[in-house]
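Hi support team,

I've been running sequence recovery on a batch of backbones for a student project. Most finish fine, but this one hangs at about 90% for roughly twenty minutes before it completes. I'm not sure whether the input is malformed or the queue is just slow. I've pasted the structure tokens below so you can try to reproduce it. Let me know if you need the job ID as well.

Thanks,
M.K.
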């Protein structure tokens, strides 16, 4: 099958729709340009045009991506960080997006996930239960030092009462 090549104008139209439908990263738009068969020489011009017309905004993308993954998928900061890195978002925009996540909501989500997971493993032996809960939270992308605190509180309720 012959690959269809798009003119600059046609590609720009398609990409406006693509970016208008949902926030996109620069790398996703770059990938789409290749898929549309746009000549390499025209990529920068098209991307510049999308930025100028506010269809493409990396900072906005990073903030929406981070917020969405946290709220909808219960992802921790580390998992969001690496997902944004994979999408070639700048370090500056990643840090800015992660700062937008409310600390109180973040802690509540972590506590809630930990409690549910720990509770679901009540038939397991104590150390297995603890390890599986920690592994689950690590896989969700939460920071090890936060996980340790939360799981310690769940597993050893007496020790955390003495501290606080």
């Amino acid at each position: 099958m012959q690959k269809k090549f798009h003119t600059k104008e046609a590609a720009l139209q398609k990409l406006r729709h693509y970016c208008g439908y949902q926030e996109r990263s620069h790398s996703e738009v770059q990938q789409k340009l290749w898929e549309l068969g746009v000549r390499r020489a025209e990529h920068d011009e098209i991307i510049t045009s999308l930025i100028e017309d506010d269809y493409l905004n990396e900072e906005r993308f990073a903030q929406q991506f981070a917020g969405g993954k946290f709220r909808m998928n219960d992802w921790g900061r580390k998992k969001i960080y690496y997902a944004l890195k994979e999408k070639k978002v700048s370090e500056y925009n990643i840090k800015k997006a992660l700062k937008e996540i409310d600390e109180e909501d973040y802690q509540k989500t972590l506590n809630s996930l930990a409690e549910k997971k720990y509770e679901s493993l009540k038939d397991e032996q104590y150390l297995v239960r603890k390890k599986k809960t920690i592994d689950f939270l690590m896989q969700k992308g939460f920071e090890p030092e936060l996980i340790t605190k939360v799981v310690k509180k769940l597993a050893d309720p007496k020790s955390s009462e003495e501290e606080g």
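--
Follow-up from support: It reproduced on our side and the slowdown came from queue contention, not your input. The mean pLDDT is 92. No action needed from you.
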